[in-house]
Design brief:
This is DMSO/TMAO reductase YedYZ molybdopterin-dependent catalytic subunit. Helices cover 24% and strands 20% of the residues. It binds the ligand Nc1nc2c(c(=O)[nH]1)N[C@H]1C(S)=C(S)[C@@H](COP(=O)(O)O)O[C@H]1N2 and molybdenum atom (MO).
């Protein structure tokens, strides 16, 4: 730690019993941390004085945010995202960070190590539909019905090697290099029962705007983790690169 930086807030876990911890959402926990640090005005003074670390996140907040990553992991176990009646589902905004890649759908394959899987290969796995909320960090959200297979069922058929701790998902459509996107997931989140490799949205095959032919629907995490048009899937022992984590967002991006 840079000695010129103000001290981070003291670890808030000291003050809380596990039962109390469970009752706190990640966000309210941040505020609890701020309370422990002293006062909000003190924190904003720190923030004002703290140097930007180059990711756009001030050091003081980064330390709080690292504590929260650990917390996100402990809160994850056993939590389910809310589900809704399918009648509430709507079409979400198209949130490609650039142009929508229009690819040859018939030629698409999911690369998994040596395997090159077609959508029909994936459709042999049990089909599941879930109506959940897609929440974008930009502030909008939409209730959407996703249909596909559970990532957990994919992992049963194509098991990770022992010691795998992460999943790397990449969207690298040929000819759309400017739109390439990549997401890293801790393996527990990938295997969460609500995490789907989805091929349909609101009862229709995915459109190009929403990631045809295959995307991730992971309602325990923000929209940034819901990678569209997946072309590569691998299990990893080290934390993989992640498009938004590379820009300073929380790698876990949990809700
Ligand atoms: N390949 C790819 N996947 C992506 C993105 C992207 O830019 N490229 N944006 C993400 C973001 S920020 C959000 S909020 C969701 C939005 O999904 P939608 O466009 O189907 O609404 O897609 C995610 N998946
Ligand atoms: Mo987003």
């Amino acid at each position: 730690m840079n000695p010129n930086q103000p001290p981070p807030s003291s670890p808030p876990t000291q003050e809380l019993t596990p039962a109390e911890l469970k009752r706190l959402s990640r966000r309210s926990f941040l505020w609890a941390g701020a309370g422990v640090a002293g006062s909000l005005s003190l924190l904003s003074l720190f923030n004002h004085k703290a140097k930007d670390d180059g990711t756009g996140i001030k050091q003081v907040f980064r330390s709080a945010h690292l504590t929260n990553e650990a917390l996100a992991q402990s809160l994850l176990s056993g939590r389910l995202a809310p589900e809704f009646p399918a009648s509430l589902a709507v079409e979400p905004r198209n949130n490609y960070h650039g142009a929508t890649p229009e690819i040859d759908q018939a030629a698409w394959r999911l690369q998994h190590g040596e395997l090159s899987l077609s959508l029909d290969d994936l459709k042999t796995l049990p089909e599941v539909s879930l109506t959940t909320e897609l929440k974008c960090v930009e502030g909008w959200s939409a209730i959407v019905t996703w249909t596909g297979c559970r990532f957990a069922d994919f992992a049963k058929k194509y098991p990770p090697l022992p010691g795998s701790k992460y999943v790397a998902l990449r969207s690298e459509p040929a000819g759309f290099e400017d739109e390439w996107y990549y997401v890293g997931l801790d393996i527990e989140s990938a295997l969460h029962p609500q995490t789907l490799l989805a091929w349909s949205m609101n009862g229709q095959p995915l459109t190009a705007e929403h990631g045809a032919p295959l995307r991730l629907a992971i309602p325990i995490k923000y929209g940034i983790k819901n990678i569209k048009l997946i072309t590569h899937l691998s299990y990893e022992t080290e934390r993989p690169r992640d498009y938004w984590a590379d820009s300073g967002y929380d790698f876990y991006a949990g809700l």
